[in-house]
């Protein structure tokens, strides 16, 4: 008789430990599957995916189900162990101590560590396997779960907690996932850079990506459609602002396609103008992108706090912020390699483009994104022709300048081996800058 009781008791403890293991592993597995992956599984109609999605949609109820079932199983196992010890003649204190040791061993090793280790290694497969069973158990235990959910809701109201389980990712967490993906080889560096570019749109302003006023190609309102086409072809642009009395008096923008139609029909330039869109230089790029998409504008006029025009921004500028610099025809001539250790560039050439082209590591900081800005920052004043600065192993010499801006810079490397990048020493526009 005693032997039968012992076998029944051990069997009950093993069964209750299995229940504990089931819910421990289920809880971890269900919450470990990413939401986007669950959506993909549901879309492909994978068995168990809809049940898994239902559990995640009502994650608070699932958590209550797992915790209630798990704890009831653990408490029941301890009670059975205590009863067995008492049946074999142990005193109350001895029985409590013995049951604590036995159930702790079973619950910790076989009810927690082992099943959760398995769930971590096989999260998706295990979650799909157990989800339909858990959903069925929820239906059976619905009255009990309702009581516990109501009690937890009361406690949450007193403690200021929320019943819903937050499942969103912060920008910092997404950035961490991107870095982890790059380290694991799931993302290449270019893909990672693009994702970071998208994340940075909210904190980057128009001023950081706009074409500055000094580099804006613009037309007076007295120009003809033929003038617009000629200027666009010579400057390598497709859209230009059109101004009236001065460059702060922007009356419209012209697209070369509209200029072509006007030229073919003999109409004047005014008929080809589009209403200009003005934005402050402090506008975040994500807001600008949404605004341009809604209005179908391809160019905006950037103004400062006083209403003065400080530059323009195009969709290309926004795309470059995400996917990197889109080097167009007018930019291919920006780096003219004249020797193995020397090159000539425009002042407006970006430091990042120069670094990429020549394999350099010149610093690019706020206010010094261009070569001209870098030279100005190093000198602490407006550069003049002949000024020279050394930045690491690189010497920058101003070979062209006006009273207010640098137009041309010679870049020389101190290492006789020359630039680190694989360059052929010539560009299509080699003679333009030297």
From TrEMBL:
InterPro entries: CBS_dom, CBS_dom_sf, CNNM, FAD-bd_PCMH-like_sf, FAD-bd_PCMH_sub2, Ion_transp-like_CBS, Transptr-assoc_dom. One of its GO terms (cellular component) is membrane. Residues 2-191 form the CNNM transmembrane domain. It is found in: Membrane. Its main location: membrane. It holds the Pfam family CNNM. GO terms for molecular function: flavin adenine dinucleotide binding. CDD domains: CBS_pair_CorC_HlyC_assoc (cd04590). SMART domains: CBS, CorC_HlyC. PROSITE patterns: CBS (PS51371), CNNM (PS51846). It is a multi-pass membrane protein. Transmembrane segments: none annotated. Keywords: CBS domain, Membrane, Repeat, Transmembrane, Transmembrane helix. It comes from the Archaea. Residues 210-269, 272-332 form the CBS domain. This is CBS domain containing-hemolysin-like protein. It comes from Halorubrum trapanicum.
């Amino acid at each position: 008789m005693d032997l039968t009781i012992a076998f029944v008791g051990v069997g009950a403890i093993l069964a209750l430990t299995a229940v504990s293991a089931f819910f421990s592993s289920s809880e971890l597995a269900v919450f470990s599957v990413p939401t986007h992956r669950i959506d993909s599984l549901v879309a492909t109609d994978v068995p168990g995916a809809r049940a898994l999605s239902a559990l995640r949609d009502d994650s608070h109820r699932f958590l209550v189900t797992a915790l209630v079932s798990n704890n009831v199983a653990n408490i029941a196992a301890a009670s059975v162990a205590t009863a067995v010890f008492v049946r074999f003649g142990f005193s109350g204190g001895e029985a409590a101590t013995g049951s604590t040791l036995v159930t702790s061993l079973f619950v910790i090793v076989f009810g927690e560590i082992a099943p959760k280790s398995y769930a971590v290694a096989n999260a998706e497969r295990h979650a799909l396997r157990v989800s339909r069973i858990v959903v069925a158990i929820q239906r059976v235990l619905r009255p009990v779960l309702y009581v516990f959910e109501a009690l937890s809701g009361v406690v949450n109201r007193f403690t200021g907690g929320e019943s819903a389980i937050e499942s969103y990712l912060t920008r910092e967490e997404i950035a961490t996932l991107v870095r982890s993906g790059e380290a694991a080889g799931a993302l290449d560096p270019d893909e990672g850079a693009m994702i970071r570019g998208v994340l940075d749109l909210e904190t980057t302003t128009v001023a950081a990506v706009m074409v500055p006023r000094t580099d804006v190609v613009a037309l007076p309102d007295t120009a003809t459609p033929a003038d617009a086409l000629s200027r666009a072809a010579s400057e390598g642009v497709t859209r230009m602002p059109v101004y009236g009395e001065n460059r702060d008096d922007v009356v419209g923008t012209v697209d070369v396609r509209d200029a072509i139609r006007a030229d073919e029909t003999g109409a004047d330039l005014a008929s080809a103008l589009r209403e200009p869109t003005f934005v402050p230089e402090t506008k975040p790029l994500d807001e600008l992108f949404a605004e341009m998409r809604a209005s179908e504008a391809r160019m905006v006029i950037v103004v400062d706090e006083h209403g003065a025009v400080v530059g323009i921004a195009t969709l290309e500028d926004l795309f470059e912020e995400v996917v990197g610099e889109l080097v167009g025809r007018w930019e291919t001539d920006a780096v003219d390699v004249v020797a193995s250790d020397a090159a000539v560039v425009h002042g407006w050439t970006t430091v990042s483009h120069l670094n990429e082209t020549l394999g350099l590591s010149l610093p690019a900081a706020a206010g010094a994104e261009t070569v001209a800005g870098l030279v100005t920052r190093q000198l602490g004043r407006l550069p003049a022709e002949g000024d020279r600065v050394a930045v690491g192993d690189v010497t920058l010499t101003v070979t062209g300048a006006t009273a207010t801006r640098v137009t041309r810079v010679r870049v020389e490397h101190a290492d006789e081996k020359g630039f680190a990048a694989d360059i052929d020493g010539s560009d299509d526009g080699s003679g333009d800058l030297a």
